[in-house]
Amino acid sequence: MTLNSLTGDTVNSAARVVRGIDELRAALAPARREGQTIGLVPTMGFLHEGHVSLLRAARADCDLVVMSLFVNPTQFGPNEDLDRYPRDEERDLRLASEAGTDIIFAPDVAELYPDGAATAVEVTGGLTSVLDGDPERRGPAHFRGVTTIVAKLFNIVGPDVAYFGQKDAQQAAVIKRMVRDLDFPVRVEVMPIVREEDGLAMSSRNVYLEPADRIRAVALSRALAAAEQQALALDSLQAGLDAARIELAAAAIEPEYLEARDAETLEPVEGLTGRPILIAVAARVGGARLIDNVVIEPLGD
Ligand code: AMP
After folding, report:
1. 212 and 154 in one domain?
2. Most CB contacts within 10 A, which of 44, 171, 180, 229?
3. Is 237 exposed, middle or buried (0-12, 13-18, 19+ CB in 10 A)?
4. Domain containing residue 46
């Protein structure tokens, strides 16, 4: 980002695109030497306002903003959408530049997973075996792929701060645990879910929705809003979950899961506990598998 000398406005110059690990480390070295702070925003591209909100937060907090753009094959299951995952690098470069990104790290698969790559980072236990990590769903291997690539990006970039979205609440909880357990010297910031005007959580995968399914898909956010409202109004988590199920059923959506869990540990909860509670939903709507969530914060005394 530079300053227009005539108007004083900030001008977002094009971000520098870097494909190689060595080149990226060399590009970051001067900033690191000068003690500048580095912010990292990991993405799989096909940017929307959710990604942009993370880039803006990084821009506001850090001297240097790095966005990674990499569709990470190790977090996709054999029957998932790796081959058809939407891509538009040119548009991503433009949007990231407009949001003030300094460097876009866009390596190819061989750069990050050279032949013989045999090491993974895994957060074990309850954080990765429930919700999306249930073996009947995406399974723990999905999160192993996520933590492996994020650990690699932390090692390559060495960020002071890394930005993730609450949209992927379980992913954020897993990454926070990895950072704590492996002593990564990075602060993790989790930013709020950015939604379309009608409430649908923004997602690169929303392009899979046919028009009629796009309308039905709003039921997920409606269900979560109903859950929060009813749970708090009736002081009953069960009443909240019941209200959510009614909203989903009205749109003929059978969720893969609709569950209430402790927002940090992801342990099951029976009722309102006085701690933040995550209500998470996943459902297939037409050609898209969608996830969304809300956190019910405890009411103050
Ligand atoms: P992805 O490209 O889907 O891997 O997402 C990259 C980052 O953007 C992740 O940390 C996501 O949680 C975050 N993200 C995706 N969608 C949203 C959204 N609607 N609001 C806020 N953050 C989001």
Report:
1. no
2. 171
3. buried
4. 2-191
